[in-house]
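Hey, quick one: can you model this chain's 3D structure?
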Amino acid sequence: MKLLGQYLLAEKYKSVAMLSLLTVMSLLIPPLTYIISATPFALITLRKGGKYGLQVMIYTLLAISIFGYFSRIGFGLGATLSTSIWIPVWLCSIILRVSESQALSIMGAGGIGILFVLALAPFNEDISQWWQSSINAFLEKSLSTAELADVQTILDTIMPLISGIIAAGIVISLVVSILLARAWQSAIFNPGGFWQEFYQLSLPRQLTFFSLAMMVLSFVGLGSLSWLAQNILVILIILHVVQGIVAVHRIVQQRSLSRTWLIVMYSFLIFMPQMALFIAFLGIADSLKKSNKTPPADS
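Sure thing. Here's the predicted structure for all 299 residues.
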């Protein structure tokens, strides 16, 4: 990975060529397209700066668009990748480069997710209907009538939150890509620096108060305002989950515990997603605890 990172950062044409290649390859693995194409670009922006990253993005956009045209995918491939992946990654990478704060970059990712929800708000009903019809068409082929009725009950609960769920998926991919790029940068130029920065990550307590406000609005029955609060809350929960994951990593490191605890945590998050709420509450407690700590007085 160090050699690949050094090649990406060597010269601009190498950055464009390798980023284009990795992006095209990522299309073969749709679940990982975001991370495979975003992480190298985040590394480039973190190390070389916003202007350099923007130039690489534009040149890569042209290269991918040409590839899309000749592969009959269309010119829209480049535009889709740039708006959904590279521009958000570029913004968050600049925040991290300038502030040297992983917390601020994660907050930036959450802000992008909230903007995404706001942008989808006028089309939420159409989006929900499209997803529901698509899912139903798939399930009708594989489930019995009784099973389909049970699943439909769950879908009726989830569909109003579909905009928030989509945005949360983008935020998760964005945060993972930025953190992987930061770790990659640290491995090349500052071994061990990533973990020092990671253990210090602390989201502001104001985020907790904002989350509580969104929770209250979600249940007061104010129509579209409550719907908006519910979808924003989905994104905020993801941010608190990230803080909770940091807290678990910090505890394991400080107490010299077995890394098995980390494996257990990630296994629960993957196979029992409802555990994310527990990790989120742990993250809220960690944020409030660190926010309440006052720096020692100067002697």
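One thing worth noting: The mean pLDDT is 87.
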